[in-house]
Each structure stands twice: as C-alpha cells, then as structure tokens.
Specification:
Elements (H helix, E strand, L loop, with lengths): L1 H10 L19 H15 L10 H4 L2 H13 L1
Helix pairs in contact: 1-2
Length: about 80
C-alpha cells in the first residue's frame, strides 16, 4: 500500500489519498491521471490491468486501487 500511496502522491501531492473515497467521482483523478497510474502500477507491481477493470469503482480510493492490485496479483 505504501508504494501505491507514493505513486498517487507523485500525481497529486496535495491530496490525502488515505482519507479520500471519491477520487474519480470528485474528479481528483482525471483520465490522464488514470492512464499514468495504470502504467506505474504495471511497472511497479508487475500486473496488467485489463480494460474491463478500468471502472470508477476500482479507482475511487487508494483502498479500492490496492484491492484491485491484490486481486490481479493473485491471478
């Protein structure tokens, strides 16, 4: 989780990602942020995020993103 928070803080250092629960809904993360985030996750966690998993529910919070990463690492 710490590595994910590091990635998120590089995107938006002014956001408290541990407390924020609506990153996409509140437009804190936009489509370009999501693309950058997916690329970083692929590189650092060695997981590929399939297109069908790129939905707001999976990116609305750091917890949701981390749950997605964990799920993909298991597969």
């Amino acid at each position: 989780m710490d590595e994910l928070l590091e990635i998120l803080n590089e995107l938006h250092p002014d956001v408290d990602f541990e407390a924020q629960e609506s990153l996409v809904d509140d437009r804190i993360l936009d489509s370009l942020d999501i693309v950058s985030l997916i690329s970083e996750i692929n590189d650092r966690f060695d997981v590929a995020i399939p297109a069908q998993e790129i939905i707001p529910e999976n990116f609305n919070s750091a917890k949701a993103i981390y749950a997605l990463i964990c799920r993909l690492e298991e597969d």
